[in-house]
Design goal:
With 463 residues, the protein is of the alpha+beta class. It folds into 2 domains: 13-58 and 186-460, Naphthalene 1,2-dioxygenase Alpha Subunit, Chain A, domain 1 (Alpha-Beta Complex); 63-174, Rieske Iron-sulfur Protein, CATH 2.102.10.10. Helix content is 25%, strand content 23%. It contains 13 helices and 19 strands. The protein has helices spanning 23-26, 47-57, 154-157, 182-186, 189-195, 215-220, 228-231, 278-289, 295-303, 313-330, 339-344, 414-430, 446-460; strands at 38-40, 63-67, 76-82, 85-91, 97-101, 115-117, 122-124, 131-133, 138-140, 161-167, 170-174, 202-211, 251-255, 261-265, 348-351, 355-360, 363-372, 375-387, 437-439. A hairpin with a 4-residue loop joins strand 8 (131-133) and strand 9. The chain is globular. The two termini are 35 Å apart. InterPro entries: Rieske_2Fe-2S, Rieske_2Fe-2S_sf, Ring_hydroxy_dOase_asu_C_dom, Rng_hydr_dOase-A. It holds the Pfam family Rieske. Residues 1-13 have a biased composition (Basic and acidic residues).
Length: 463
């Protein structure tokens, strides 16, 4: 889908976050933000706060429900669940997608689970055999003669729909039929990601794990990159300036409207620490997670290295020239080679409330984090490795590879395992009696604060 809404033609960089909420918002919710940079610890484990999210956030916000390649053919479906509400995401005969509430209109039996295909274009209740077309309209009531006519009026027993739209290779849903349009809600994050070509990407793999960590705390770890030196020391490949307190690469953090946030590289300046070894960092990224940087990228980079200093900007420019040449020869649609695109390589976009994309070259890493098992202390953490394939290449139907333990070395690379280890430690620490709030850096963690400010506005709405 192309962003054509006139609202989105304006300058992306002008869509900055509005700042901290006032007393009119804070008075309506428990444990509101204490200013811009202090987050009450109870927000991460309070049952009261969790129940308010279930009532005021999840039923009223657009959320990424599926990759489009999960449902390539008419009749294909995948289930999406959020805080006890189940939807069936179903590909229609005309290629469009609908989101149907997953409950029989007779006696509430779930009509589908996991993923699959509805044979013959019919959704059949496994209890009494009622049938619906894949568009949700009723096609057969078994034993209709036993019902009063008013009880089985077609309009009353049609499956109920949620809002559903597609963008960027994803299916998005909103349980609120009066919600604003998808592209309005995703502005400006969708615009930034679209110019990086995410709409052309498809999944290389998709995995998940279950973590003993609140969904917000889990995703916030990826809103900033300055944890790399401590959490992922193998990735810190600077040849000089290694004794600096922080990774001094020029990283810019931007909180946007609608709760979205971004970090990316800034304009190159002298005095930002040493130069990273580009090729070494690329190899470690590929071997550590098989996402963002892939084996095919390493092959291209190695082919032009020769005896060059691989931390030299001249080598990096040569490597990028070779990468674009490879894409052209392989028939892989390439992102535009503009400063706006290049700055995002290795950066991060958070799409409020719970989806992140980290574009790099013609690839992206993606995370989705959801509450798990009606428990504020647990989350379901999903990971995708996305890439751009040659035009016309059929990859078949995407399926979840599996649910793997966070310490499974056969299915998680070193980089995600390092991150997962931190997340559960954070959840244990957030309950320490000595801790009433966490405090954020104005420079490094502004997008975390912005996410919480937007969350409070959502929770206060209608209260």
């Amino acid at each position: 889908m192309t962003v054509t809404d006139p609202r989105h033609a304006r300058d992306i960089e002008s869509a900055l976050a509005p700042g901290p909420n006032g007393p009119e918002v804070n008075a309506k919710i428990p444990f509101p933000m204490n200013g811009w940079l202090r987050v009450p610890a109870d927000r991460y484990h309070s049952r009261e706060f969790f129940e308010l999210e279930k009532e005021k956030l999840w039923p009223h916000v657009w959320q990424m429900a599926a990759r489009e390649e999960e449902i390539p053919h008419p009749g294909d479906f995948v289930e999406y669940e959020i805080v006890g509400q189940s939807l069936l995401i179903v590909r229609q005969q005309d290629g469009s997608v609908k989101a149907l509430h997953n409950a029989c209109r007779h006696r509430a039996t779930e009509l589908g689970s996991g993923c699959g295909r509805f044979p013959g274009g019919q959704i059949v209740c496994p209890f009494h055999g009622w049938r619906w077309k894949i568009d949700g309209s009723i096609s057969h009531v078994f034993g209709r003669e036993g019902f009063d006519a008013e009880t089985v009026r077609p309009e009353d027993i049609a499956l109920r729909e949620a809002r559903c739209d597609t963008w960027g290779g994803h299916v998005w849903v909103n349980l609120d039929l009066d919600a604003p349009p998808l592209l309005e809600a995703l502005f400006p994050a969708a615009n930034i990601l679209q110019r990086n070509g995410v709409q052309r990407m498809r999944a290389k793999w998709w995995k998940e794990t279950i973590l003993n960590c609140n969904w917000k705390l889990a995703q916030e770890a990826f809103f900033e990159g300055w944890h790399v030196k401590q959490t992922h020391p193998q990735l810190y490949t600077y040849k000089d300036g290694a004794d600096s307190e922080t990774n001094l690469q020029n990283t810019v953090y931007t909180p946007f409207v609608n709760g979205h946030g971004r970090f990316q590289s800034g304009d190159a300046k002298e005095g930002y620490g040493g130069k990273p070894d580009f090729l070494q960092a690329a190899r470690l990224n590929w071997s550590g997670q098989d996402a963002m940087t892939l084996e095919r990228d390493i092959t291209v980079f190695e082919s032009v290295a020769g005896g060059m200093d691989t931390s030299d900007p001249a080598y990096i420019a040569k490597a990028f020239d070779a990468l674009y040449d490879f894409w052209e020869g392989a028939g892989i649609p390439a992102p535009d080679r503009t400063p706006e695109v290049l700055k995002m390589w290795g950066g991060d976009i958070h799409l409020f409330p719970n989806y992140l994309m980290l574009p790099m070259y013609a690839n992206s890493l993606a995370y989705r984090v959801r509450p798990y098992n009606d428990d504020p202390d647990w989350c379901r953490f999903e990971v995708w490795s996305l890439t751009t394939y040659p035009e016309g290449e059929d990859r078949g139907r995407l399926e979840l590879s599996g649910r793997f333990d966070k310490d499974d070395t056969d299915n998680w690379g070193l980089i995600p395992r390092q991150d997962f280890a931190n997340l559960e430690r954070m959840q244990r620490g957030i309950k320490n009696r000595s801790l009433k709030e966490i405090r954020l850096s104005e420079k490094w963690e502004a997008t975390i604060a912005n996410m919480h400010q937007e969350l409070d506005r959502r929770l206060a709405a209608g209260s």
